[in-house]
Amino acid sequence: MKSSLIAANARHQSVAEGGTPLHIQIRESIRRQVKKGELIDADGRLMTEAELGRYFGVSRITIRNAISPLVHEGMFARSRGRGTFLRSNQPENWVGRLMGFSETIRDAGYEAGAKVLQQGMTNRHDVGVKEKLQERAVWQLKRLRLADDTPIAIEHAFYPPDVGLELEKRELIKIIMYSVLEDDLGHEIAEAKQTIGAGLTDATSAKLLGVKPGAPLLTIERLTLGKDGRALELLRASYLPEFFRLSISLTRRAT
Questions:
Q1: The domain containing residue 182 runs over which residues?
Q2: What pTM, to 2 d.p., does this model score?
Q3: Among residues 119, 216, 226, 248, which one has the fewest Cβ atoms lying within 10 Å of its Cβ?
């Protein structure tokens, strides 16, 4: 069955249903349907813009505006002369490019979500937070992270007060953190230093993630630095290992 969006009039493509622009509605419909194996062929090739335009009943410009963010996110890759193809990324594949949880999960074709567990200013943190952020008091954000409503991670992030109080004004459920830091707040990110480890769920985290206490976790600690060397974020996160796998390319310099 074709999407209900097909009934929309292309002449009103900028008009929103419930305040949401049509190209965004179509983008999210494409995301959902492709995840189910629809709109693509056996090779992962997405229907052409013309075909999608007929399918949804809108102009090619609307389709192009819907697809471009999906290409930018990494869900699709364009091949000149061949078409637009679904990338083979799964939610457990990480890339070398600095990406937040929402970007990583959307890159894999899943809907990212969150539940805020804790937020606000605090001076009750360990010495590691103080040393890395160089702040006596910090703004913290602890969230349960979801992929298609399935709990798969717990993230606890710490920010300098001026950064955190700006983040507090944003929608913390759907925020694309690194985009906000750079594009909205003007903090150009230079690099992130990440340490990867392993851990076990305690009673609280096990309940949040829907697993038994003592279940294995993949853990990371990531310090994100601005161009001026200032620490912008310290992230501590625990992920269910069945959802994440690390692929690292190594080279050995010839002597």
A1: 101-243
A2: 0.60
A3: 248
* One-letter identity of residue 48: T
Amino acid (1-letter code) at residue 133: L
Let me know whether 134 and 186 are in one domain: yes
Tell whether 95 is covered by a domain. Answer: no
3-state secondary structure 73-136: HCCEEEECCCEEEECCCCCCECCCCCCCHHHHHHHCCCCEEEEEEEEEEECCCCHHHHHHHCCC
Cα–Cα distance, 64 to 45 (Å, whole number): 16
Domain match, 74 and 126 both: no
> Between the CA of residue 126 and those of 15, 50, 196, what are the distances in Å?
50, 56, 19
Phi first, then psi: what are they for 44, rounded to 5°? 85, 10
CATH code at position 24 = 1.10.10.10
CATH number, domain of 214, equals 3.40.1410.10
Does 25 fall in a domain?
yes
Kindly tell me if the per-residue pLDDT of 66 is higher than 70. Answer: yes
Specify whether the CB–CB gap between 30 and 66 falls below 8 A. yes
Tokens of 89: 């990324």
Straight-line distance from the first to the last Cα atom of the chain, in angstroms, rounded to the nearest whole number: 61
| Chain centroid to CA 75 | 11
Return the amino acid letter for 240: L
| Structural domain total, the chain | 2
Per-residue pLDDT tens digits for 103-157: 666 655 667 788 999 999 999 888 999 999 999 999 999 999 988 788 989 999 9
